[in-house]
Amino acid sequence: MINSLLSLGERALMNAQVGISVTGENIANIDTAGYARRTVGYATSYSVSIGGGLSVGTGAEVEEVRRNYNTLLESNYLSANSETSAWAAMAEALYNVEKLFGQTNDYGVATALDTFMDSLAALEGSSDDNSEAVRQELLSYAETLVDSLSMLDSSLDDALNTLEKDAAESVDQANSLMKEIAALNASITSHPDSLELQDQRATAIRELSSLVDVQVLSDGSSVTVLTAGGQTLVEGDYAYELSWENPQVETDLSASSSFDGALYFNGASSDELLVEVTSNGPADGSASAATFRVSLDGGDTWLTDEDGAVMEFTAGGYEDKVEVAGVEIWFGQSGDSSAPATTNLAAGDTFDVMPKSGLYWHATTGGKVNITPLQGEGTNNRLSGGELAGIVMARDEGLLAYQEELDALARELIWEVNYQHSQGAGLEHYTGASGSYEVDDETIPLAESSLPYADHLQAGGLAFAFYDKDTGEALGVEALDFSSITPGTANFDPEVHSLQDVADAINASYPGQLQADIQDGQLQLTAASGVEFEFAGDSSGLLAAVGLNTFFTGSNASDMAVDPRVAADTDRINAATVDGAGEVASGDSSNAVALAALAGKEVRLDSVHSGTSQSLSSHLHALTGKVGADTDAAARNYTQSNALAAELDARQQEVAGVNMDEELTNLMRYQQAYQAASTLIQTTNELFDTLMSLKS
């Protein structure tokens, strides 16, 4: 019995020592990030029987040192943390962009546009006495507008480059964390009682959840980490891989397809295009060619026309490219984009066109899956949370969309001003003029050409007025006649006439007065000796499309500029028009009136992000307002998700965090237990000594 008491006291002493040690570890790690509080679990030890069948306990023993952690709370926290990180990344990116748009009233692109439009109105009211001052002012405001648009576009480019770099770095960080978690899985499997390794793994998973959305499945000592979309990131000791890749096309052919060519594209877009073949046939642009439809939301919906019908496009080669959402699409041989495809497409063939960098998950089989965030019900397998998702959403739904809208605005502004300006005349006549836009092939119809504004052309007439260079006398107005090019057709038709046809028609219509040539794809006009000319009206848009008698050059925010001829000589600003007799009346401001009216003209931008008709200024103000609204929404969503994540983390800390008061209480309790165990041993020894003395 004495031995049993000694054994009981020794065990109690050791139990107290373990409790003191664990409590001391908790106190030492009170400020250690990721540390989960440890507690000692005790279990009643076995009992022994003594004389007469009496059962006596042998005390307690340490069953385990537990890591206090609520896995359900942690799962909810990981989800909230991913969402918070996504909104944080998006809010930060959009806030920086908002500052670019949200300039003061004295500076900024919106103010520059309004001021330019006001200066057109001032040109309308100018007289011969102050015409030069007004023209110089108009030129100055035009150059300010061009600079503002260019600077904003360049700043957006810089911001986009930064986001692309951030995305690539985040992918590297995610891959590194996935490898770390896999290695920790292996170590924990070998050392399942190592609580330190479990802490390290939980911390790494939290860090990973800040980059991508994750869900965690545990099979005991090891965990499997997946994205919310179902892609496995870590499985046991194996880490999968993510990659940030350049624009590309992923092909998925139907079982019955024999197509061995490829889909090619040109251009950049904030949208991802899912191309689905809807009818069998060759990809040659013929009447029997295959057709396809396009979705911008992963197949959830399909692009429709104004009547709501799904748009069907004809599959063609390089010469029959189709433009969708700013991206040119065509089919060719594998490895040769200019060679026609030789095999047929089949209904059900799909092509995922990524005209931008994207995020991909790599499977063990060597294949890869596009998990770039994309809005749509059919895109549940895409990344939806974490910093990476926030960066991509800020890029696609924010910066790229804003830049496309800005380019569409600049494009329409250039066209509207150029079209109206080309209808008028300045203060001096031309002896020669050169188009600012060029074609790749001067022999194809202009509607199919590479002219930036080929789609704005329409059938119509164009007239020239001629003057005696020495006397200034009007020699008359003559319409350009295409009947020598296409008998029976006098007017220009963009579906029929090429740039070479235009040059030939000018040479045939005005022999001895005007010579037309094509140099480097641009139309060149040269008046005969002693002759000057003016453009006397153009209902087809041909002049604006080829860049003759225009105010601006370029076709987007980055390449927009004041026409060098106007910049060098403000007399080229066309405030007047040529009358029926070929005269340009002194003080005439009829074209200035039409130019000033552009401020209130409602136009529709060539952009999937804008579906309304309104003034150019209203479009720009709406874009600025959208940037502000998007930034505010991202900030509000961040605040809400961050509050939820903080609450969940606080609740987890109630379980896993170290509380100094509680630990000190535990320390006192274990100390008292230790002292009690010591007293028990001492008392037992004294009892033993007493028994021995009685015997002696």
From TrEMBL:
Pfam families in the record: Flg_bb_rod, Flg_bbr_C, FlgK_D1
Domain Flagellar basal body rod protein N-terminal, chain residue ranges per copy: 9-35
Membrane spanning stretches: none
GO biological process: bacterial-type flagellum assembly
The protein's name: Flagellar hook-associated protein 1
Superkingdom of origin: Bacteria
Family named by the database record: Belongs to the flagella basal body rod proteins family.
Predominant place of localization: other
An annotated Gene Ontology molecular function: structural molecule activity
Cell location: Bacterial flagellum; Secreted
Domain Flagellar basal-body/hook protein C-terminal: 654-694
Listed GO CC annotations: bacterial-type flagellum hook; extracellular region
Keywords attached to this entry: Bacterial flagellum, Cell projection, Cilium, Flagellum, Secreted
The species this protein was found in: Oceanidesulfovibrio marinus
Domain Flagellar hook-associated protein FlgK helical, chain residue ranges per copy: 96-248, 376-433
NCBIfam families per the UniProt record, alphabetical: flgK_ends
Record carries keyword Secreted: yes
